[in-house]
């Protein structure tokens, strides 16, 4: 696989007016994405994800820093059809059918993907004769997906792509994404569904307050929080609990006790060799836990500065 960089952001900053001052939406982000990568962009509302996506797409320009897409400017890459996007919003003509919409937009491109092929690939073929105004929010997202595929893009940007979709539609959508990724497309998606990032993304970028908190293979980002869950059946004394090391949090659920730990091996050895705890279970932190842990740690660090 070609691993040459296709997107490079260096020292990118962007702020917006807010309450008589300015709020820094993106604050000094450095990011390189290589060909064929599947990257999840994660963060709470206001983290800077959408602003970062807008700069990659040339919809807004950075105040400082540089954005390079496929060796050129974002706007030139978009104009050439080499990068495309499925965004949360975007005007659709309500009186046209889904097929008419795809056909109309296809006519604007020099060498578009076939209309029926785009409808099939996006999962919109089953309702292609329906008027846009009669489509659900999830169906309109699939229509936008079909439009994004028309240029046969090398890079596909997805901003909350499954918003409004039911569980089955989300599963079908990600099946389509896997096919594109397997064919070598570079995919970057922002999502609030962290299970989607865990199941699909090979790399996760966690953002908060305009900065990147963590960036790497999804499993490694999860581990970076240094948190695992150890659950046992046990009735400890206060003194036994005080003896425990590497414990960040304790929660009781009836006869079961759940420990959050930064060293599951050491805690497990202690529980099995020095206590009468039994029924022990160890589970790695979820991406959701890692995200919350890293975000809280960054908030505490900023407050202390």
UniProtKB/TrEMBL annotation:
Domain of life assignment: Bacteria
Chief location bin: membrane
Classification via Pfam families: ABC_tran
Subcellular location field: Cell membrane
Keyword Cell cycle in annotation: no
Gene3D superfamilies (alphabetical): P-loop containing nucleotide triphosphate hydrolases (3.40.50.300)
SUPFAM superfamilies (UniProt xref): P-loop containing nucleoside triphosphate hydrolases
Membrane topology recorded in Swiss-Prot or TrEMBL: Peripheral membrane protein
Key words of the record: Antibiotic resistance, ATP-binding, Nucleotide-binding, Transport
Domain ABC transporter: 7-234
InterPro entries reported in the protein's UniProt record: AAA+_ATPase, ABC_transporter-like_ATP-bd, ABC_transporter-like_CS, ABC_transporter_ATP-binding, P-loop_NTPase
One GO MF term: ATP binding
PANTHER family referenced in this protein's UniProt entry, alphabetically: ABC TRANSPORTER ATP-BINDING PROTEIN (PTHR42711)
Protein name: ABC transporter ATP-binding protein
């Amino acid at each position: 696989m070609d691993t040459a960089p296709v997107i490079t952001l260096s020292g990118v900053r962007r702020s917006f007016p807010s309450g008589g001052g300015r709020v820094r939406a993106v604050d000094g982000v450095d990011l390189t994405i290589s060909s064929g990568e599947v990257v999840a962009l994660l963060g709470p509302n206001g983290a800077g994800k959408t602003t970062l996506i807008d700069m990659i797409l040339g919809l807004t320009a950075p105040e400082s820093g540089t954005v390079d897409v496929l060796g050129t400017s974002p706007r030139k890459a978009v104009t050439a059809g080499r990068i495309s996007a499925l965004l949360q919003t975007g005007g659709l003509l309500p009186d046209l059918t889904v097929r008419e919409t795809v056909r109309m937009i296809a006519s604007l491109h020099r060498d578009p993907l076939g209309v029926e092929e785009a409808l099939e690939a996006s999962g919109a073929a089953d309702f292609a004769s329906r008027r846009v105004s009669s489509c659900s929010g999830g169906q309109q997202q699939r229509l936008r997906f079909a439009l994004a595929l028309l240029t046969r893009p090398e890079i596909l940007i997805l901003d909350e792509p499954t918003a409004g979709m039911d569980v089955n539609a989300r599963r079908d959508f990600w099946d389509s994404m896997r096919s594109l990724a397997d064919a070598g497309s570079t995919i970057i998606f922002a999502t609030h569904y962290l299970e989607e990032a865990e199941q699909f993304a090979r790399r996760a970028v966690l953002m908060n307050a305009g900065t990147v908190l963590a960036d790497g293979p999804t499993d490694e980002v999860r581990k970076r929080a240094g948190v695992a869950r150890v659950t046992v059946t046990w009735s400890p004394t206060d003194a036994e609990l005080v003896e425990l090391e590497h414990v960040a949090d304790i929660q009781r659920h009836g006869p079961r006790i759940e420990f959050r730990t930064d060293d599951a091996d050491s805690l497990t050895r202690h529980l099995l060799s020095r206590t009468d705890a039994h029924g022990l279970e160890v589970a790695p932190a979820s991406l959701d836990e890692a995200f919350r842990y890293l975000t809280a740690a960054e908030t505490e660090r900023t407050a202390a500065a």
